What we know:
alpha+beta, Jelly Rolls, four-stranded antiparallel beta sheet, 16% helix, CHP02466
Amino acid sequence: MNAEVKPIFNVPIISINLDGMSDQLGLENIIRDEIENNPNAHSPEHIYQSYPYLHEKESVALLVNSIRENVRTVSEQVYQYKPDYEIDITAMWANVQKPGKSFKRHVHRNNIFAGVFYANGGKDLPPIQFFNSLQPQFAPATVKSNSFNSGIWTEDCQKDTLLIFPAWLNHQVGNNKSDRDRLSISFNVMLRGRYGGITNLQSVVL
Length: 206
């Protein structure tokens, strides 16, 4: 085919290996302690989540600093946003996904970036699934999946992996079919600063 294919409007999902971070922090114990300290941690869907203030704890300061540094790199080098935004982690919380349970499809509103860090992992634990925001009305049969014909992208649950993605991107975690807990930390990030050009009448400082 004598044609130029232009993959417009790509959605980046950034995967970063923070090797040894979980063991260095004792993150599995931190997650379980945070869940135990939240009397509302047990949701109706049997998903266990801590209070969303984990980023304020000194015990995870090393992880928080790494998240901020990597989000800044993504903001400036991937998105080419101006470098004068403040990286504000607006919420951070621990998750325990018990065997037989799942996280429903959702987005993280009122933030620019969202992410997850895995305290454990393995092929037996369910991956995170991302959904294409463009929904075609027809789905022809395919020979091979690619970024043009796929509606779902999966990323394996791997220990010490940090994932950063747009907060508006729909995602879920399927049924945990293993016999062990899936442990992770989720977070939201806002870029604090001026949005829009100051002379275009649609500027705001957030």
